[in-house]
Design goal:
The complex is a heterotrimer of chains A (243), B (407) and C (156). Chain B has 15 helices and two strands. Chain B is mainly alpha-helical and 407 residues long. The longest helix of chain C is centred in the first third of the chain and has 24 residues, at 6-29. Chain C is elongated, with a radius of gyration of 32 Å. The chains are: A alpha+beta (243), B mainly alpha (407), C mainly alpha (156).
Amino acid sequence: MKLSRRHFLVLMPAAAIAWKAVLAGTPDQAPNYKLSEHWWGMLIDVPKCIGCGNCVRACQIENDVPDGYFRTWVERYHVHDEDMTNPEVISPDAGKEGFPVVKEDAGKYFFVPKMCNHCSDSPCTQVCPVGATFVTPDGVVLVDPKYCLGCAYCVQACPYGCRYIHPEKKVADKCSLCYHRITKGLTTACCESCPTGARQLVDLKNPQDAIHEFLKTHSVQVLKPQMATGAKAYYNGLDGSVR
Amino acid sequence: MMCSLAILINEQAKLLNGVEGFMYPNEIGLQWSVLIVLYPFITGLVAGAFILASLERVFHVEAVKPTYRLALLTALSFLIVAPLPLQLHLGHPERSPEMYFTPHSTSAMAMFGYVYLWYLMAVLVFEIWLDYRRDIVLLSQSTRGPLGWIYKFMTLGSDNISPRSLHIDEKVGWIITLIGIPSAFLLHGYVGFIFGSIKANPWWSSPLMPVVFIFSAMVSGIAGVLLIYMAVTKLRRQPIDMRCVDTIAMYLFYTFLIDFSLEMLDLIHRIYEADESFRSLDFMVHTRLYIPHIVVQIIVGTATPLILLFITQVVKLPERVRKQMYVTAGVLALLGIFAMRWNVVIGGQLFSKSFLGYTTYKMTLITREGSLVAAGLALLPLLILWVLVKLLPPWSPDEKSQHAIGD
Amino acid sequence: MFKDAGHLFRFAGLFVLAFVVFLVVRGYVVPKSFGQYGHYRGDALNEIAAHPVKFAGHEACEACHTDVLATKSKGKHAHVNCEACHGPLAAHADDPSASTPVKPDTAVLCARCHTATAAKPRGFPQVDTKDHSNGVPCETCHQPHNPAITDAGGAK
């Protein structure tokens, strides 16, 4: 990497100013972020996932996720072609350090990243007794750590198993869709670190977002549609054996 | 098909952290411990004891009158302890007043604060106060010292025990008991709804859940009062009113029969429909839940007491034998109902929501949510009951009694 | 009639008193922003959004490292973001002189994505690292920013 001194002297302050502006943005302070202009979701392109575990590690670093608990994880499925109801699934340490090597066999393998689905009809917010977890006006399901009692009712109510009780803070915790990043114009930590583009943040209210064209041209599903949760994590190429 | 699933799971089973098969990473540790098993058991006893008391007050079943006051005090003792397992379980118990200040109207759990307070003050304490008011006023006048001040406070400054005022108490008490019956159903039915309304968990999600909870609560409450009455009467060296316990046993039998039928209906429905969760749940019941569910809840805790009670209903047996059978049936019934709560709460967390795996509940001994605390909380109501019986004796002085009121 | 029901009014009075106390306490205790957007504390949104950022995002890196961007956009790693390999670098982007990022160990890093296994998508470039390079470090032949091997050897 070669930067001339002149380049350096010009670019440094410019970058610093730009970066400070990015860091300073909060929903009410940044005049350019309006809650009503966004409706966040995630697109997960299953055939692109290589099970590298970058997303799990990045999320843990970005959000200080405690050991043994996971805001996101990757599952590896092994399906024998005639029996979709009995897949073998593993998620060693949530896929954080990747997966063991396997040899070719008669079945098929694929990876499925999982996370909070930021449901628009979320069953977890329905059962919270005090209003400590909620759907924001811009479509993100969040937990208010200062208000949560730690009763774990929301953990029981989530059909996807994405919640846990933080072992030190003793409150409910889960994927926040990197709310502190997306409100500043950044993407989520998992999407940023995914090398294949298997995970992409989408803003359904943005007419320029590529998701609209993608949904028109691909077959996309949500997890457990029979639960009618209004899940907003859209899976492209999801196999019928995925639980 | 069941066999192939069992073989599959066992073949790939790596017992890591007690996990067999696959569980979502966050599901491996259980969220709700034995304390959450204890809570519905305790509120069930409250509701059941109250229903027994209301049998006499509202439905004029004279035979159970000797247990009326005792049943109310039993209900109060257990109700006082009821919030404790919940408080010990919460991550932030100091924030529990939030349920009173900002209850979320869509959450069944948010009802808890208000239903509990309503039942405690507007039903139980009110009814006990009305029934005991004459005794309280007399005791406030005859007792000296700090205990006398307690009685004085309990009179709320009114020493009016004229026949007219007592008559009003009687009428109002009747209305309160009447309101108390649906209130008792609400107090325990909402707990059933807390589980029954969770679509994410097929072991819990069922419209039958509140009904099953209510009827099993009645079984535990009736059995509990039966045992307490027999124990307390024995301790007072008084003769047990056999007409009373025979009647209680009869109600216990029929309530248990309904409870058993409801649970069998749930089971048969599950087996018949065999939806996507069935194989996983069936496997769980046959393996991890075999002892608590098949052995303790069904065989020992339901079928055996039902058979014992059935025999006492159809065969004329001598008093001594009946007493032994009632005690045995009562104890086994309580065990069976506790096992039922265990199987619902713990069982509902032992299987993965992916239906591909199982975990283990590692109950600790000395921690905040361990078995010692649970045992202590289960026995605490009996201690409180002892204090209440001393403070507000259920027996009037004209009954044959070794102790005078106010001792 | 009311004379004989006086005690009931006293009991009811207790309820009314408790209710009034409850309302007063509630007025103090419930957070002011509660209910601003829904049944939750409105301030929570800003508090959560104010969490520190650890990954700078590729645009922050590209503002300075334009030459790397130029190299990368010509090759197969064009869509692999900087921090996917280099880890969280918001501290470096904030003050480049204060923290210098450590170069990742290619033996571990490249293997994570490119170790051959039947589980990965068939079209994805993957090798058995032992057969492929016999222990020779990846960057001997592959420049990570543009991993294609050129006639001249490719590596810097």
